[in-house]
Amino acid sequence: MASRFVVIDHDTPLLLPPDLRDWLPEDHLVHFIMDAVKLLDLCQARVNTRGTGYAQYPPGMMLGLLIYCYATGTFSSRKIETLTYESVAVRYLCADTHPDHDSICKFRRENKELLESSFHQVLECAARLNVLQVGQVVLSVDGTKILASASKHSAVSHGHAQQQLLLLEEQIKELTAKAEAADSTPLREGLSLPEEIRRRQKRQEKLREAVQVIEQRARERHQQEQAAYERKLQERQDREQARGKKTGGKAPQPPKEGPQAKDQYNFTDPQSRIMKHGGGEHFEQSYNAQAAVEVQSRLVVSQLVSDAPNDKEQLVPVLENKSPVVQSLSVVLVDSGYYSEAAIRQVEVPDADTGVSPQVYAATRRHKHGRSVKDLEQHDDPPPPPPGAPVKAIMEQRLETQEGKALYGLRKQTVEPVFGIIKSAMGFRRFSLRGLTKVGLEWTLVTLSYNLKRLYHLGTRLPA
Q: Is the pLDDT of residue 354 over 80?
């Protein structure tokens, strides 16, 4: 029996113009994002109200374009422009228009207020639809390192910068003397003394700027370390007075002033930092992206970006930056990287209206993976610590209770999968913008896109 094939005809034109909606499934993500954007108040968008120049693209379409592309793993403005021609979903979203990459990048860069407003409005919509809990919320907080739009090989350390400045100074003196000498040996063809001197002087200026920034950062770091040292010293003295005897162990050491030889400055993105990646196995030029996730819906309700290489001082800023949609906190779950007695005391302040304070469940040290036989055995909850007990003892007792173990187990089941989805499923591993402010703007767009994609996968039905 002869084989039969479907007829593929590339030559016959369509008699009637096609409707791109017929080329997409009814439950496609792009329909959900377009419907969600229609519900948002876009008054924060920056538009040209003078009526001059070319006609501008509607803010709703541009916002939907960015959200859909970020949710599906396209972050470059040039690649987004290409998708307006090649992707059926993107072409349908843009109504067969094609914003160029400059317009896309400019809209993303100049609409910080719009993105922040949209982030909160999406959470408000989720709360109205009973997807997001807003009272007595359990939050899971964590951070992840995202690569900066800069190479670590574009960085210079303080020690190397000082050596290069001395070397450049010697070379400039030598070249200047050579230019003044009438019988000096000429340079190779294509090289000139004035240009070589100017090139080294420009390099000098950049290195001096790098040294100034590194030294300023060192002064700020010393102030923070000095405050922490004085706080630890005071706590040690208070314990000794309460016990009536000296405390064992090493006394806290005062911090050293001045920059370290390995302190670095990146010429491409000066505000980024060298940070540990892969469990400390290697270092990359990065930013520290923070997120707080509501454990029931797994929606991001607070986000920010820091240039700090660790999470020690990020707990309070993350909670202060939470969406106003979240009215009150019940429990905050963090790992040992966030543990700080000062931070926990700041978080556990009673609410002015209810008088109830949120409880922090923080590991005070790293725990090994897996469970021992002792962990499998049933144990009674340890007794509560006495009044005035140190914060560390309170944290350890909370995590040893059955309730504490159940709550803390939610941390790795909620916020860590969110970062996994953002980095692996969405593919966002490197910022496209540079500078802490613009990087924070892009992280807002990433978490906004994640939240809408999460609501779509939850089967949320948006109101008409």
A: no
Q: Max alpha carbon distance in the chain (Å)?
A: 101
Of 60 and 3, more confident: 60
Answer whether 324's CB lies under 8 Å from 342's CB: no
- Which residues 6+ apart lie within 8 Å of 459 measured at CB? none
SS (H, E, C) the chain: CCCCCCCCCCCCCCCCCCCHHHHCCCCCHHHHHHHHHHCCCCCCCCCCCCCCCCCCCCHHHHHHHHHHHHHCCCCCHHHHHHHHHHCHHHHHHCCCCCCCHHHHHHHHHHCHHHHHHHHHHHHHHHHHCCCCCCCCEEEEEEEEEEECCCCHHHEEEHHHHHHHHHHHHHHHHHHHHHHHCCCCCCCCCCCCHHHHHHHHHHHHHHHHHHHHHHHHHHHHHHHHHHHHHHHHHHHHHHHHHHHCCCCCCCCCCCCCCCCCCCCEEECCCCCCEEEEECCCCEEEEEEEEEEEEECCCCEEEEEEEECCCCCCCCHHHHHHCCCCCCCCEEEEEECHHHCCHHHHHHHCCCCCCCCCCCEEEECCCCCCCCCCHHHHCCCCCCCCCCCCCCHHHHHHHHHHCHHHHHHHHHHHHHHHHHHHHHHHHCCCCECCCCCHHHHHHHHHHHHHHHHHHHHHHCCCCCCC
Q: How far apart are CA 175 and CA 198, in angstroms?
A: 11
Sequence-distant (≥ 6) Cβ neighbours of residue 356 within 8 angstroms = 328, 350
Q: Report the pLDDT value the prediction gives residue 463, as an integer from 0 to 100.
A: 83
Q: Both tokens of residue 157?
A: 């350390």
Q: What average pLDDT is seen over the chain?
A: 88
Q: How far apart are CA 373 and CA 378, in angstroms?
A: 10
This prediction's pTM: 0.88
The conformational region for residue 169 under phi > 0 = left, psi -120 to 50 = alpha, else beta, is alpha
pLDDT bin (cut points 50, 70, 90) of residue 373 is low
Residue with tokens 């979203």: 93
The answer to whether 422 touches 428, Cβ cutoff 8 Å, is yes
In terms of Cα–Cα distance, which of 159, 170, 186 is closest to 265? 159
Q: Per-residue pLDDT tens for 184-210?
A: 777 777 677 788 888 989 998 999 998
Lowest mean pLDDT among 22-31, 77-86, 402-411: 402-411
Residue 145 in this model has a pLDDT that exceeds 80:
yes
Q: Give the number of C-alpha atoms closer than 13 A to the C-alpha of residue 383, restricted to the C-beta side.
A: 4
- Write out the two tokens for 188: 């190779």
